């Protein structure tokens, strides 16, 4: 982690206008992301963790410019992404890719695995037909899908395998940063571990950086160098992963960690009251801070 | 005293391709006021077990084809529809994962709590309404008297799950079956809903069957744990014993695959993934169902030739495997990949 960050987000804000309610002159504005700043360096993973509605996915979409930020800046590789033309954005997309949550709906069921993985190569006119084909074989191998299954359709694969296919597609253009939006939350524990290991291996081999967005604190911990905790559109705590988990500073981070049930029945029983107290304390600070 | 006694329960789904043995010989007993955790991954048969107990299998698509379910001395599998309806909601209640589809969006919350009170307990409208307010208070819904006339969409996910609990406990059931009751909730909301369930279970002395995929939730709530894999019980033990001394290779692997929040340098460690995936339950062969993924099954092993029986390896600790951890002499012979 040295030199200029790969991704630099500053004062990012995204507001949504709610439908006007009866009898109100003005429509309500929701600040989904409220002036947040963070960095992701080359080859590192920043885990962005928060509960539903915290703004973590919106942040991911704003980074990718799939949503237009209301204000603030998103610099990738030294280049400002907000407000650039579609053509310029397209060039940047080669280096900035996404892995979606749902391996069932994010793959077109009418396309073969090869057609799915080759698509970004065709869109960006990379190589010729034969070299693209070789590249697809290489990518499938890389993510642990039998290359001879390239002519099969998504429904012939399990959830974990589909997520591998989604990762292969995201890797096709040799990106530097992958935004992973809840990539394992639809998967069973035994399969989830396979995908988390794969993401760690790929990072080591390819020097990828991840912005890893998830609600599950244990999952985020397994892949992240640093952690940012989001709540109600703001980052309440950011730091080295081991540090944040061992010594959380913000009451909300403490409450989140205290709420995770651990696979240890003795401790869960002994600590029931202590856990309740930590959550109550965080609720009290939240109510005081609420508008 | 055994309140619920399930013996060799077999439930099958009838599909174009054949019969799916979704629940394949499940047995357990549950005593009054105790909590049984049923844990397993998608497709292991845990939810189908719950639906079978409740008599809520989709007609024509699935049926109990064998075994018995005895509740308080009565055989439930032979019960008529009307009799079952009288029992359900009154003595046996259920909470599902998805409160948005379990609650009726066109009825107010109050109407939905009042209904079982009037149907099962014969309360007058006025008494039932008063009781509904108390119930909402009990599940910690603020301003309960005012919130009674709101509709489900006015409630948040956590609040709706509390309403589901209020409806479930309305008639003081002896048995509550909760199928992934907190899976759709945020982790802090889950914690408070679990606390609530824990308190109510104690207070009402309800027996609770808690179905979940989450080992942490099981550890928090269960007295006794049933681990299911591919339609069968593969391990059963008191909670502390199960987590201290897991015997089945699947239980061990499942615990090892869990990412931990309290581990230093988590980033440097590899998670112990379980290779492969569960088998198809379409007419499965009579061999160990975990063998293809098991780190301890070797070529020519018994596991690939016959089905291990569920046997008692220590008092109260049952396991279905030829390779329980306490009987293994050496390190794993073949490391699955």
Descriptive keywords:
heterodimer, A: 291 residues, alpha/beta, 6-stranded mixed β-sheet, 4-stranded antiparallel β-sheet, 41% helix, 22% strand, B: 337 residues, 8-stranded mixed β-sheet, 11 helices, disordered C terminus
Strand order, biggest sheet of chain A? Answer: 6-7-8-3-9-10
* Helix and strand pattern of chain B: EEEHEEHEHHHHHEHEHEEHHEE
State the assembly state of the protein chains. Answer: heterodimer
Spans where pLDDT lies below 50 across 5 or more residues of chain B: 333-337
The low-confidence parts of chain A are none
Summarize the structure.
The complex is a heterodimer of chains A (291) and B (337). By secondary structure, chain A is of the alpha/beta class.
Overview of this protein structure:
Chain A is built from eleven helices and ten strands. By secondary structure, chain A is of the alpha/beta class. Chain A has a six-stranded mixed β-sheet with strand order 6-7-8-3-9-10, with helices on both faces. In chain A, strand 7, helix 6 and strand 8 (209-214) form a beta-alpha-beta unit. The model of chain A has no long low-confidence stretch (mean pLDDT 91). Chain B has 337 residues and is an alpha/beta fold. Chain B has eleven helices and twelve strands. Chain B has helices at 46-54, 81-87, 99-102, 109-121, 125-138, 144-147, 157-169, 187-204, 215-221, 239-244, 249-257; strands spanning 2-15, 18-31, 35-39, 62-71, 74-75, 92-95, 175-179, 207-212, 224-229, 232-238, 311-314, 317-319. In chain B, strands 6-7-8-3-9-10-12-11 form an eight-stranded mixed β-sheet, with helices on both faces. Chain B has a four-stranded antiparallel β-sheet with strand order 2-1-4-5. In chain B, strand 11 and strand 12 (317-319) form a beta hairpin. In chain B, helix 4 packs across helix 5 and helix 7 packs parallel to helix 8. The N and C termini of chain B lie far apart (45 Å). Classes of the chains: A alpha/beta (291), B alpha/beta (337). Chains A and B meet through helix 6, helix 7, helix 8, helix 9 and helix 10 of A and helix 8, helix 9, helix 10 and helix 11 of B.
């Amino acid at each position: 982690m040295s030199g200029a960050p790969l991704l630099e987000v500053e004062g990012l804000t995204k507001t949504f206008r709610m439908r006007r309610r009866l009898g109100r002159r003005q429509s309500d504005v929701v600040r989904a992301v409220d002036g947040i700043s963070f960095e992701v360096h080359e080859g590192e993973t920043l885990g962005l963790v928060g509960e539903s509605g915290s703004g973590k996915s919106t942040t991911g979409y704003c980074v990718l410019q799939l949503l237009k930020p209301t204000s603030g800046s998103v610099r990738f590789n030294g280049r400002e992404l907000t407000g650039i033309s579609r053509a310029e954005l397209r060039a940047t997309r080669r280096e900035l890719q996404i892995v979606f949550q749902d391996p069932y709906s994010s793959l077109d069921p009418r396309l073969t695995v090869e057609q799915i993985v080759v698509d970004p190569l065709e869109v960006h006119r990379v190589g010729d037909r034969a070299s693209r084909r070789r590249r697809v074989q290489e990518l499938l191998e890389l993510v642990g899908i039998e290359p001879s299954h390239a002519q099969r359709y998504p429904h012939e694969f399990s959830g974990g395998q589909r997520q591998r296919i989604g990762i292969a597609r995201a890797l096709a253009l040799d990106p530097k940063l992958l935004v992973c939006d809840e990539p394992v939350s639809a998967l069973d524990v035994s399969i989830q571990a396979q995908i988390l290991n794969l993401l760690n291996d790929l990072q080591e081999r390819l020097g990828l950086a991840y912005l890893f967005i998830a609600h599950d604190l244990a999952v985020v911990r397994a892949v992240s160098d640093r952690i940012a905790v989001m709540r109600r559109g703001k980052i309440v705590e950011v730091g080295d992963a081991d540090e944040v988990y061992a010594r959380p500073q913000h009451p909300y981070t403490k409450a989140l960690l205290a709420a995770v049930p651990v696979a240890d029945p003795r401790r869960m029983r002994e600590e029931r009251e202590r856990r309740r107290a930590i959550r109550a304390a965080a609720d009290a600070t939240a109510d005081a801070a609420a508008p | 005293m055994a309140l619920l006694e399930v013996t060799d329960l077999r439930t099958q789904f009838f599909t174009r391709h054949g019969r799916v043995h979704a629940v394949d010989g499940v047995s357990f007993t549950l005593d009054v006021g105790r909590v049984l955790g049923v844990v397993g991954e998608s497709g292991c048969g845990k939810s189908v077990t719950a639906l079978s107990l409740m008599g809520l299998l989709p007609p024509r698509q699935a049926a109990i084809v064998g075994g018995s379910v005895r509740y308080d001395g009565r055989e439930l599998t032979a019960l008529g529809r009307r009799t079952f309806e009288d029992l359900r909601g009154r003595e046996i209640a259920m909470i599902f994962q998805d409160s948005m589809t379990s609650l009726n969006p066109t009825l107010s919350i109050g109407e939905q709590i009042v209904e079982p009170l009037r149907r099962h307990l014969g309360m007058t409208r006025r008494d039932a309404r008063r009781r509904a307010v108390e119930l909402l208070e009990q599940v910690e819904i603020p301003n309960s008297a005012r919130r009674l006339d709101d509709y489900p969409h006015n409630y948040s996910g956590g609040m709706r799950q509390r309403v589901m609990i209020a409806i479930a406990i309305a008639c003081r059931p002896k048995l509550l079956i909760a199928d992934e009751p907190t899976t759709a909730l945020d982790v802090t909301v889950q914690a408070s809903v679990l606390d609530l369930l824990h308190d109510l279970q104690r207070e009402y002395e309800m027996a609770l069957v808690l179905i979940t995929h989450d080992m942490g939730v099981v550890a928090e709530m269960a007295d006794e744990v049933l681990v299911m894999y591919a339609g069968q019980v593969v391990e059963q033990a008191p909670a502390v014993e199960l987590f201290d001394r897991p015997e089945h290779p699947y239980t061990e692997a499942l615990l090892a695959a869990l990412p931990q929040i309290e581990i230093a340098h988590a980033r440097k460690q590899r998670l112990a993934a379980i290779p492969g995936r569960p088998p198809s339950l379409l007419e499965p062969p009579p061999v160990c169902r975990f063998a293809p993924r098991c780190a301890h099954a070797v070529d020519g092993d018994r596991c690939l030739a016959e089905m291990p029986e569920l046997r008692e390896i220590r008092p109260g600790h049952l396991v279905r495997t030829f390779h329980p951890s306490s009987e293994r002499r050496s390190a794993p012979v073949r490391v699955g990949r």
